Amino acid sequence: MLVTLNEVLKPAKKGKYAVGLFNAVNIELARGIIAAAEKTKSPVIMGTAEVLFPYGPLEDVSYYLLPMAKKANVPVVIHLDHGLKKETCLKALELGFTSIMYDCSTDDYDTNVEKVKEMAEIAHSYGATIEGELGHVGDNEGSAEGNSRLEDPSKFFTDPKVAKDYVEKTKVDALAIAVGNAHGAYKLPPKLDFERIKTIANTVDVPLVLHGGSGLTDNDFKKAIDYGISKVNIFTDINVAAAQAMISNFTDANKGITDLIPATVEAVKLETMAKMELFSSINKFQA
Questions:
Q1: Which of 14, 30, 171, 212 is the most buried (most CB within 10 A)?
Q2: Mean pLDDT, the chain, as a whole number?
Q3: Which residue segments constitute the domains of the chain, with CATH numbers given?
Q4: What are phi and psi of 36, to 5 degrees?
């Protein structure tokens, strides 16, 4: 069933668990994600990001994401992650995405507020939800988002007091925060500012989002969720699981793609299920 962020994140915030966003740039990824959600009776957020369009154009992925979500027997949000341009966000809404993230985090504060507030009004007019980002989540080398690692990431951490003002002014439904997390695979163990997560969670009334989830330890996830994170974004881990399944099943040159698809879908399913168990979203939906 196709739903919005509010329908899965508000219960998550109240119940102190998190719902995963898993990007699906092809149908094999999407099949694995949906299979995992249905197997575990977990709500799920599925989508893509603007930087992933070279691998799966927005309109193309909408042709399978939306019908699969509507057909699923668990709540599925179809979300545009890291929409960088107004036009991209508008296109996603026109296609039927039920949620968007308008990422203006590299703009100055007033510009970020102005642009996201306008987009929130538009998204809500479509009956969709919107996520904003305050502070700036950096990128590890080789991440899908690029390579904009920050020399001193703490300078870009989310300020709790500013977060309250931002949420009140923009009317976003969820807030992505910067607390030591980064996109892509971590070369060194990240050091999340858990106290900052707790303070922000106690300061704003919307669910909080942790980007750059792939590569964090199980303890990092559990503690971040316990301190107030309600949505965790994952791509690298399922992307790598899919590639590893392909490699291990490509045993000779006579193998075709049809020989690789079942193992790929299963690998994505298992990795997604492991994350859902870690996020404690299993059995949170009962039809």
A1: 212
A2: 90
A3: 2-279 (3.20.20.70)
A4: -65, -45
